């Protein structure tokens, strides 16, 4: 028997992946996945069975299939089979066509990706191969700007030191370029001939979804080379500014980390769909009960009364006793009464949803003229769910921001410069002063330019620092045409600012930095780069100028830099701090700048200690940090910078509106914490008005649990009065002596809180034993920002909220790293931005800018929910009113399963007479105009609380329908039983009764929908009154002599309409029935409008009053820290390995004026009564 260590070793070996280069035969025995991507659901063979299986998971479809089978049995069917099979086939066909169309586009997208060409090294030569034919173990050649075909181990590169540069926007949303490096020995194999003989074997971890980790070993020529994530090129990356490189395929197709993070395509249903499935089951149960009642009545009647007629009215075979007659009667009534849920309901629902989708597509106010992109509803099944969203999960980069950044204001030696933001377009013209200035640079303050021109020492030193203290690379395509490639967007903006003010960064080598200062070329010796990291929150450079003087320049967060200043800077520090607070109050990202002179002796001593720390084997990072900290002391303050973080247009206003609508916005981003937090303040998610902003950054389970516990501590305003941490049910919340559960207390806390959590901590918080505490804490906060999260973690957060809060979720993003989150949410929205179209392809809705989300939810979503609810309420009402007449009639026809109406009326009632008016209401109706929906976001709340259509509203509708059926049956029955024509002929015959009841029914339901319609269009008028006129036209035609002569066996009601409708007593009966059905409804609605009006009623009464401004004052100040940098670039530059760096997209964000978040507490027990603030 194997020992436990041996078993673990065997299991570990089983999980390992072995890949041998240039040996397909060896690799194929492991049956690794091919590189073919398949996101579609069907193929030609599986479409019909799989699609039908999915459709018959709908309870209603199964229900109607069962009814169809019953109607094929002649002994129990009193209706023709075509009344069911035609609508059912129509519904299945429409849905199948829609699903086939959706899957066709998935197939087309898959084929487009799979048929991309790549260069594969086969038998010593490069050959063109489709991506789908690439296999694990193949060696691939990539060229500049090509996408990475699979997860590759970098073998060699055209760049020095085996470096290559990649853009990872499709993976983590970041547009800045990252560096990868091959293993040292294979980097010499740049020649394809040498690579053809490469037979190294890689042993590594199995496929997983961790984007930032890779562990493996390369075995080649009896040597081992450790492999890390720095040696990997992942699928979804794009090669930038690297002429060519070669890579070995490690993971292909579905095994790649990109696909491992994509998640599965899920079939999404709305909450109304799920409720309708439940209601269909209830109605079926109600139908069975009615059938049983009528079957029992049939048995009693046949035994007590029917037996007396056996001599001349015998039972039809095979009926031979009253019990079997009752059995057949039961099934006959099931068929007759099935119209309580007609198949036309589902046809109508699909048509209405299609109409709503077209309204979204046609909305000009959601059209982006800049990128010529319109909003698109990529699904037709989720429109009403847009009106019930409670949580929005948003990506940051490219979703909230534009990826543009600008130098906005600054403070130099206590003097503030900069008089506006990027929204003010009066900018300085730098060209006469500086031929190398960037014409796109925007700044307005002549004083700063004059200060530079007159030779102010502090201004010169300020911009000299910005031109030297960075890790930017420069490429001069032609004389004076400079292209900066910044590792972070902040650095790019600062270096561009220095360039425009005359201090132009030109080039660098591992040991020098060359600048042009006011037209004079200066080369500095680069002695050291004191690199940035998230703990230091600063970076420094030590340079020697041409005169031989050594100086340290430092920039960083004011919280860490100001405490390292010389005491003589106290007064200047106070002034600069005030400026920093002002800039932060404007939502700008700030940095403090300082310098110090270093003597030659001090430099020699420090340089030696730095070299020792750099070569240390143990605790290298700690020793380097200590060395950095030693020299970054007693600095002299120069000033501060303020960068405008450009948000997309309208982001702040959109988040404020969503907040007022009780929609919580969570930001889930792969970016650094500082960047995400600054965006949070810029878009007013985080404000200084908040009682506290909690940061969860622990790296162990214990530390995360402790930090979550401290966030929930009563001293911080959370869980005051809580004495236990057990979760109680709803019955314990009222009148219970037990302590209130944490989730209840967290949902009802007062005050505003924010929560910031990073990816490491989130991994622990998502564990089963901690997820409840995390959810309760996070959901009690007004703003939640999750930083450095992986795509899978984004999806897990969404799933967590769906699991514990039972709330409708919406995820919005623009990159492939957001696909998993978009698929997991109830509703996925893709931004068609600069990071590809993967998010759009996986989404349910797409548009170009985040601000369109407010219109999608507050206008289209709210209207769709309102229309669908009104449609369903009316539909159930009219069908119960129609069907229950059969039930009452059964007690007067010997329970013989005879229908009240002729079969043509039964067939046409839902298809012709009442279908178009309810469709018009379901498509066009609205309670308030679109601008009022945006001005009063509280109107959105009924959808979140599910107030307009629920089980209670359903029972009210069927109760009204049953009441109407009682009136429509017994009123004509009572009047016509003793009525006569003017000739003295009695009117108490079956056909007259049927025509009178049918006419009264059509008129009553037409008047009812006229009352229910809140927004009349020409189409509504034509459909409502046209359907009424169409009824009389068809009725007269069906009862005519002409059709009777042609089809005497089909049209039995010959002449009935003409004789019945000419009788005044019939019209009196119809008028009385209509009044008795409608007057109580009118009275109830008038009383409700007067005594308990809904918010929409109040808004309508204020339509002519001008709306007041909703947005409040700006938030308070904070110290905004702008330095979204990555550790390690300083070492890379000084090593000389990074002398060509690819261009980076400069992410920038614009602070927009908007209100701070306004807390709106939900009251789930009562609907909103008070008008919104716009109308008070």
From TrEMBL:
Keywords: ATP-binding, Magnesium, Membrane, Metal-binding, Nucleotide-binding, Translocase, Transmembrane, Transmembrane helix, Transport. It is a multi-pass membrane protein. It catalyses: ATP + H2O + phospholipidSide 1 = ADP + phosphate + phospholipidSide 2. Its cofactor is Mg(2+). The chain crosses the membrane at residues 63-92, 279-301, 321-347, 871-892, 904-924, 954-973, 993-1011, 1023-1044, 1064-1087. It comes from the Eukaryota. It is found in: Endomembrane system; Membrane. Residues 840-1093 form the P-type ATPase C-terminal domain. ATP binds at residues 395-397, 491, 532, 555, 589, 669-671, 788, 794, 817-818. GO terms for molecular function: ATP binding; ATP hydrolysis activity; flippase activity; magnesium ion binding; phospholipid transporter activity. GO terms for cellular component: plasma membrane; trans-Golgi network. SUPFAM superfamilies: Calcium ATPase, transduction domain A, Calcium ATPase, transmembrane domain M, HAD-like, Metal cation-transporting ATPase, ATP-binding domain N. Mg(2+) binds at residues 395, 397, 814, 818. Its EC number is 7.6.2.1. Residues 19-85 form the P-type ATPase N-terminal domain. This is Phospholipid-transporting ATPase. It comes from Nothobranchius furzeri. The gene is atp8b2.
């Amino acid at each position: 028997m194997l020992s436990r260590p041996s078993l673990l070793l065997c299991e570990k070996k089983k999980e390992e992946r072995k890949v041998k280069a240039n040996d397909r035969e060896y690799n194929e025995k492991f049956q690794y996945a091919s590189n073919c991507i398949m996101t579609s659901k069907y193929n030609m063979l599986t479409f019909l069975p799989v699609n039908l299986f999915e459709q018959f998971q709908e309870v209603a479809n199964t229900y109607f299939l069962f009814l169809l089978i019953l109607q094929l049995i002649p002994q129990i069917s009193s209706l023709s089979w075509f009344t069911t099979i035609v609508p059912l086939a129509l519904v299945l066909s429409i849905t199948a066509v829609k699903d086939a169309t959706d899957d066709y586009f998935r197939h087309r997208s898959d084929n487009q990706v799979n048929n991309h060409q790549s260069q594969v090294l086969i038998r010593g030569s490069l050959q063109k191969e489709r991506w789908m034919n690439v296999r694990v173990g193949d060696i691939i050649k990539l060229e500049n700007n090509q996408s990475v075909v699979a997860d590759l181990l970098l073998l060699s590169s055209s760049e020095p030191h085996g470096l290559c540069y990649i853009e990872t926007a499709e993976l983590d949303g970041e547009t800045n370029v990252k560096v990868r490096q091959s293993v040292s020995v294979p980097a010499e194999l740049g020649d394809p001939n040498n690579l053809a003989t490469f037979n190294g074997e890689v042993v590594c971890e199995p496929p997983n979804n961790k984007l930032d980790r890779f562990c493996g070993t390369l075995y080649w020529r009896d040597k081992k080379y450790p492999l890390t994530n720095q040696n990997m090129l992942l699928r979804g990356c794009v090669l930038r500014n690297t002429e060519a490189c070669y890579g070995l395929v490690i993971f292909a197709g579905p095994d790649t980390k990109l696909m491992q993070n994509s998640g599965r395509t899920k079939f999404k249903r709305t909450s109304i769909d799920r409720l309708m499935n439940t209601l269909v089951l209830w109605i079926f149960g109600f139908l069975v009960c009615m059938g049983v009642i009528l079957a029992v009545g049939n048995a009693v009647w046949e035994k007590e009364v029917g037996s007396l007629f056996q001599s001349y009215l015998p039972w039809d075979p095979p009926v031979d006793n009253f019990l079997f007659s009752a059995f057949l009667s039961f099934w006959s009534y099931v068929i007759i009464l099935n119209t309580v849920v007609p198949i036309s309901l589902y046809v109508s629902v699909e048509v209405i949803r299609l109409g709503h989708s077209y309204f979204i597509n046609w909305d000009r106010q959601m059209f982006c003229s800049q990128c010529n992109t319109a909003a698109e509803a990529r699904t037709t099944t989720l429109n009403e769910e847009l009106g019930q969203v409670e949580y929005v999960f948003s990506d940051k980069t490219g979703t909230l921001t534009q990826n543009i950044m600008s130098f906005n204001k600054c403070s130099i030696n206590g003097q503030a410069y900069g008089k506006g933001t990027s929204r003010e377009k009066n900018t300085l013209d730098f060209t006469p002063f500086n031929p190398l200035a960037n014409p796109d640079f925007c700044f307005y303050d002549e004083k700063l330019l004059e200060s530079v021109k007159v030779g102010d020492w502090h201004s010169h030193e300020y911009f000299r620092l910005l031109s030297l203290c960075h890790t930017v690379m420069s490429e001069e395509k032609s004389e004076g045409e400079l292209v900066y490639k910044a590792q972070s967007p902040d650095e790019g903006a600062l270096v561009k600012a220095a360039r425009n003010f005359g201090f132009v960064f030109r080039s660098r080598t591992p040991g020098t930095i060359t600048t042009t200062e006011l037209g004079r070329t200066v080369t500095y010796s680069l002695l050291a780069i004191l690199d940035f990291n998230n703990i230091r929150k600063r970076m420094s450079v030590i340079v020697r100028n041409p005169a031989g003087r050594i100086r340290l320049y430092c920039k960083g967060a004011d919280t860490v830099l100001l405490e390292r200043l010389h005491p003589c800077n106290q007064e200047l520090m106070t002034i600069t701090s005030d400026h920093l607070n002002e800039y932060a109050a404007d939502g700008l990202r700030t940095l403090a700048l300082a310098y110090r002179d270093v003597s030659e002796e001090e430099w020699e001593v420090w340089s030696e200690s730095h070299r020792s720390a750099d070569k240390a084997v143990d605790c290298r990072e700690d020793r380097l940090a200590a060395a950095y900290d030693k020299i970054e002391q007693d600095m002299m303050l120069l000033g501060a910078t303020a960068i405008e973080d450009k948000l997309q247009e309208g982001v702040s206003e959109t988040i404020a509106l969503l907040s007022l609508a009780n929609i919580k916005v969570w930001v889930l981003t792969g970016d650094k914490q500082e960047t995400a937090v600054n965006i949070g303040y810029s878009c007013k998610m985080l404000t200084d008005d908040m009682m506290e902003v909690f940061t969860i950054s622990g790296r162990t389970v214990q530390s995360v649990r402790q930090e979550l516990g401290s966030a929930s501590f009563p001293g911080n305003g959370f869980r005051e009065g809580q004495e236990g941490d057990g979760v109680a049910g709803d019955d314990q919340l009222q009148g219970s002596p037990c302590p209130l559960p944490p989730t209840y207390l967290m949902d009802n806390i007062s005050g505003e809180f924010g929560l910031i959590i990073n990816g490491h901590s989130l991994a622990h918080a998502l564990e089963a034993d901690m997820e409840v505490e995390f959810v309760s804490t996070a959901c009690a906060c007004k703003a939640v920002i999750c930083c450095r999260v992986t795509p899978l973690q984004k999806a897990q957060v969404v799933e967590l909220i769906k699991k514990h809060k039972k709330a409708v979720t919406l995820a919005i993003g623009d990159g492939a790293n957001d696909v998993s989150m978009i698929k997991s949410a109830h509703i996925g929205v893709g931004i068609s931005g600069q990071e590809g179209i993967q998010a759009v392809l996986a989404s349910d809705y797409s548009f170009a800018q985040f601000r369109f989300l407010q219109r999608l939810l507050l206008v289209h979503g709210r209207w769709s929910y309102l229309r669908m609810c009104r449609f369903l309420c009316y539909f159930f009402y009219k069908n119960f009113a129609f069907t229950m007449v059969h039930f009452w009639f059964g007690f007067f026809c010997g329970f013989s399963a005879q229908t009240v109406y002729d079969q043509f009326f039964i067939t046409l009632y839902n298809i012709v007479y009442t279908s178009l008016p309810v469709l018009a209401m379901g498509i066009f109706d609205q309670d308030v105009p679109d601008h009022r929906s945006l001005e009063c976001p509280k109107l959105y709340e009924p959808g979140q609380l599910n107030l307009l259509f629920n089980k209670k509203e359903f029972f009210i509708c069927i109760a009204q329908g049953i009441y109407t059926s009682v009136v429509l049956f017994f009123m004509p029955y009572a009047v016509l039983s003793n009525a006569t024509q003017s000739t003295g002929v009695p009117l108490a015959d079956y056909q007259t009764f049927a025509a009178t009841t049918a006419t009264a029914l059509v008129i009553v339901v037409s008047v009812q929908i006229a009352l229910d319609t809140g927004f009349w269009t020409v189409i509504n008028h034509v459909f409502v009154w046209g359907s009424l006129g169409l009824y009389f036209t068809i009725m007269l035609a069906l009862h005519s002599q002409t059709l009777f002569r042609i089809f005497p066996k089909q049209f039995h009601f010959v002449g009935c309409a003409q004789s019945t409708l000419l009788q005044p007593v019939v019209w009196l009966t119809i008028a009385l029935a209509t009044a008795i059905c409608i007057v109580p409804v009118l009275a109830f609605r008038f009383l409700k409008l007067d005594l308990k009006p809904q918010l929409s009623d109040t808004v309508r009464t204020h339509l002519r009053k001008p709306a007041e401004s909703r947005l409040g004052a700006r938030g308070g100040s904070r110290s905004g820290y702008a330095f979204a940098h990555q550790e390690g670039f300083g070492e890379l530059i000084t090593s000389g390995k990074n002398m060509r760096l690819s261009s980076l997209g400069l992410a920038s964000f614009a602070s927009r004026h908007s209100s701070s978040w306004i807390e709106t507490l939900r009251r789930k027990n009562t609907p909103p009564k008070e008008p919104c603030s716009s109308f008070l």
